[in-house]
Every structure is written in structure tokens, then in C-alpha cells.
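[Discussion] Sanity-checking designs against the backbone

I'm trying to build intuition for which residues belong where. Below is a C-alpha cell string of 314 positions. I'd appreciate it if someone posts a full sequence so I can compare it with mine line by line.
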């Protein structure tokens, strides 16, 4: 019958997945539990080097003490690799996908997200996700990586609630300046991806009590949400649905803006805080530059004075 849900995703430089004490992945022989686990590993050996051996593996911690909530994994972005190719020689090529309110409004419950994993490949440059309420008001970001590194990909702890009817937009930006050919979406290292994994509780199920697995891009006019085996998995909803305002690709010196303000007043305060921080950085940088210039002039004059006193005249 095959696997029907994702449990954990790991990439280069990744850390461990640590669940909160109140939640765990249910394992038993019932229809709503994990009956078996399959480990899938992607190897890449483009130079066909012989004799390579892999000693890596995983360690699972299991307990008989049932926790309060069953945990789940919600996949966002382009899980089925249908986004268009990244054109060559492009400094910032952006793709945006949506998990629209038409999908999240069908959830049986709100979800509490405790970790988030943003995943791209070698030419990935930035990646982030935003949340919007039913009135299209911004609720901030779940996660944001402004300087993406394929060799250092981490599952980011977070603590926020996503309510039924809210919309999630996932953004990916690639820098293909060093590539002369288009880069396709695919499984190989030199291919690209744009996938987000939300780890949350309590677990979502569809109307037939099957795991609610994904809310993903399928085509520019089709969104997939729910369980893959559901005949109604694909829905005629544009991608991205209600694109985010422009400006998200602006880097704020690596600052993460992952905690959503609760009110418009807090939004204003948050924006002012960022503005003040950037101003302080600009002032500090200018002061430091002036100091360096003055110091260089003093050193230059002093060295000249020393030279006049010590070196013999020609």
C-alpha cells in the first residue's frame, strides 16, 4: 500500500527533531497510528567514485507513556516538484506558493507549530513563510532564512498557533548567476526544491479520518490539500493565492522575524523597532568608518614623523 505520510526530513547540516513533552507521533497497529517506518536516503555521486560506504542512520526514542496530543507533519510549497525552472544568470528568481484559506478552513482544529524546516538546494538564496488571517491581515512570519546555505539546513524551533481559515504563503529565492543552463525542480543535488515542513499538534485528519498530509503547489491554477489518496485532493485554486506584497526579498542583516505580533499596534511597534535597529546599525557603521579614517591619518602622520627622526637623511 506504500507510505502515506512524512515523519521527518533531514538535510546537510541538519539538527535533531525534538518533540515537545505534550506531543508525540502515535505508533500502534490501529488505522490512525504508525504501523511501520521506511527510511529513504538520497545519494548523489556524480563523479561515480567507487568504494563509497555510508554509515549514517537515525535514532528514534519511543515511550509507552502516551502523550496528550498526537503530532503531525504538514508539507507546504512544491512537494511534487512542479514549479517552473530557474532561469540561468539570474540574481534573484522568486517563487511563491500558497496554502489558501479554502484549504485551512476545512481543518477540524487549529494547530500548534513547534518546529519548522525550510528546504532548498545549492542555488537557494532566501526562503521564508508568512501567515495571513481571514481578513487578509498579516500575522507575521513562521520562519525566515535570509542567507540560505545548502550545507547548513536546520529545523527551527517555533511556538505559534495557526487557526482554521488562515493562509500560509511560502517563498523561495534562487541565485543562478553562476549557472549557464536552466535549473529544474528535482531530487538531484544540482536540481532545486522549495519545500516547507511544519511539525505541529494536534494532528489533522480529513473527513475519512486519514492524515491531512499536504497543502501544496500543483500547477499555477491547481492547489493540492488534504490526503493524497483523496479524489478531491486537487482543487481549482490559483497559485499563489493572494500573493504577498513586494519587498520580502529585502534582507534585514539576517534578523529573524518569526514571532507574529497579536495586534496592529504591536505590528507598528515591531516595524518601528526594526527601523530603529537599522538606524542604529547605520549610525554605528558611519561612526566606525569615521574613526578608522581618523586613525589612519594619525598613524600615517606619526609614521612619517618617526621616519624623519630615525632614518638618516640622504
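Best answer:
Here's mine. Compare freely.
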Amino acid at each position: 500500500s506504500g507510505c502515506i505520510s512524512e515523519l521527518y526530513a533531514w538535510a546537510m547540516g541538519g539538527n535533531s527533531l525534538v518533540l515537545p513533552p505534550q506531543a508525540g507521533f502515535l505508533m500502534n497497529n490501529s488505522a490512525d497510528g504508525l504501523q511501520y517506518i521506511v527510511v529513504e536516503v538520497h545519494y548523489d555521486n556524480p563523479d561515480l567514485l567507487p568504494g563509497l560506504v555510508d554509515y549514517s542512520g537515525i535514532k528514534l526514542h519511543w515511550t509507552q507513556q502516551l502523550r496528550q496530543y498526537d503530532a503531525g507533519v504538514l508539507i507546504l510549497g512544491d512537494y511534487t516538484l512542479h514549479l517552473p525552472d530557474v532561469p540561468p544568470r539570474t540574481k534573484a528568481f522568486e517563487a511563491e506558493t500558497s496554502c489558501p484559506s479554502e484549504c485551512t478552513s476545512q481543518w477540524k482544529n487549529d494547530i500548534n507549530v513547534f518546529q519548522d524546516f525550510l528546504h532548498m538546494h545549492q542555488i537557494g538564496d532566501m526562503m521564508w513563510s508568512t501567515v495571513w488571517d481571514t481578513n487578509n491581515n498579516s500575522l507575521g512570519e513562521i520562519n525566515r532564512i535570509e542567507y540560505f546555505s545548502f550545507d547548513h539546513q536546520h529545523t527551527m524551533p517555533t511556538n505559534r498557533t495557526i487557526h482554521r481559515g488562515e493562509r500560509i504563503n511560502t517563498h523561495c529565492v534562487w541565485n543562478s548567476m553562476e549557472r549557464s543552463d536552466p535549473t529544474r525542480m528535482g531530487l538531484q543535488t544540482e536540481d532545486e526544491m522549495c519545500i516547507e515542513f511544519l511539525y505541529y499538534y494536534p494532528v489533522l485528519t480529513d473527513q475519512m479520518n486519514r492524515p491531512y498530509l499536504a497543502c501544496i503547489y500543483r500547477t499555477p491554477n491547481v492547489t493540492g490539500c488534504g490526503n493524497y489518496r483523496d479524489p478531491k485532493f486537487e482543487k481549482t485554486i490559483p497559485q499563489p493565492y493572494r500573493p504577498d506584497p513586494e519587498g520580502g526579498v529585502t534582507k534585514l542583516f539576517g534578523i529573524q522575524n518569526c514571532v507574529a505580533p497579536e495586534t496592529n499596534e504591536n505590528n507598528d511597534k515591531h516595524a518601528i523597532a526594526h527601523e530603529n535597529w537599522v538606524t542604529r546599525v547605520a549610525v554605528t557603521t558611519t561612526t566606525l568608518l569615521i574613526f578608522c579614517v581618523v586613525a589612519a591619518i594619525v598613524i600615517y602622520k606619526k609614521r612619517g614623523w618617526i621616519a624623519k627622526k630615525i632614518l638618516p637623511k640622504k
